[in-house]
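JOB MANIFEST
job_type = single_chain_structure
chain_count = 1
residues = 477
[input]
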Amino acid sequence: MKKILFVTSEAYPLIKTGGLADVSGSLPKALVGLSQDVRLIIPNYQSLNLAEKPTFIGTVRVDNHPVHILESYMPDCKIPVWLVDYPAYFGHPGNPYTDAKGQPWPNNSQRFALFCRIAVEVAMNRASLNWQPDIVHCNDWQSGLVPAYLSLEKKRPKTLFTLHNLAYQGLFPAAEAISLNIPGKLWNAEGLEFYNKLSFMKGGLVYADHITTVSPTYALEIQTPEFGYGLEGLLAVREKNLTGIINGIDTEQWNPATDRHIKQTYDEPTLERKAVNKCALQTRMGWPVDDKRPLFGLISRLVTQKGISLVLDSLPELLKMPVQLVVLGSGEPVIEQRLREVADRYREKFALVIGYDEPLAHQIEAGADLFLMPSLFEPCGLNQMYSQRYGTVPIVRKTGGLADTVVDSLPHSIADKTATGIVFKGTSAGSLLEAVKRALLLYNDANVWRKLQTHGMRKDFSWRHSAELYLGLYDTL
């Protein structure tokens, strides 16, 4: 049994802004299922959804300021959650990283540097918790300073850093290195300095004993200038210590046979019941109920990375077709406004819901026929896996985890029962439209379409295999 301290800035269902929360909520649970001793440490945000009222378990002093550590549990299991309680930094409502206007909290460097320092004290068993991990598993830039600080310690636990999205690096002005009291040994071009800025991400990439990222294809892509964001050289140097492990999904939360959010549960043998969910979704969107009309879903952050510009540029031609499209998400104001304008013009077939609505996300996955995911890059992606599990055929760009989890529907892959979606390579609206047209041709062949749905529903996207790969890495460390 390994003792694992899982360091993360968000975890579902405690708090969620994106895929990191899904991973941080389900991977620890899978590790516990493999008989590991896991403790999750996270800031005590005001907006946390806690199963039990937290109890005080210790205090750590940082720069002469007392920081309390509280304990609660994950709502859906008994994994201990240790909360870094410092109200001045984490006691405001809403998003963990941004204010109500979507701007980063001005003291984010101080907030997450403090979080990292407390995690280090816990990892070194200096928090009076009588527990020291064998492995400290850190996630994304918010915990990037943990491997850096631990590199200065003797008899430290081993560190693993999981890179979920290199586009978000935790970059701050160089002056922050002074205000944060970054040790001089760490402040250099081979350490935390990145083109005269402080990079939290480099803390994980340089100092962790091993690096993982969330798909094998993305592990290769980030070693190229196109996807490396200036860190491709460092990642290439660390290639032998870099592994791509595809994320799993929470197969209890995302299971059409038991999903409490949807109108009608179903599985592969009862796939015809899926049509009830399509009718319910059409009714909710105020559309005509028509089981024959293909219904597209899109659930995403509305940002450039997700290929939303391809969708926007495709909409004039796409909405001339006899289709329906529902979009759920939030993001860049300009993108949101353009989508609102389309929604106002095509109310009878296009619906936009700004924000994130977990029940509606499940209803879209269950009710849609096809799922659009044309990301310009996608480290892993989860919705393409949810879609296949729900018999909703995904249309994806061939990048990152999308390339690793969706098999294109070509004559040979349909024949050998591996085809599960539509895959395209280009970065233009024309490429997306050609993929949509190819999908509609397949949709009109009921026999082939049923095969695509069932092939996807049979795939195993559970965390168990991925958790076993992580456990193997822990063993090597």
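[summary]
The two ends are 14 Å apart (CA to CA).
The CA atoms of residues 52 and 72 lie 6 Å apart.
exit_status = 0
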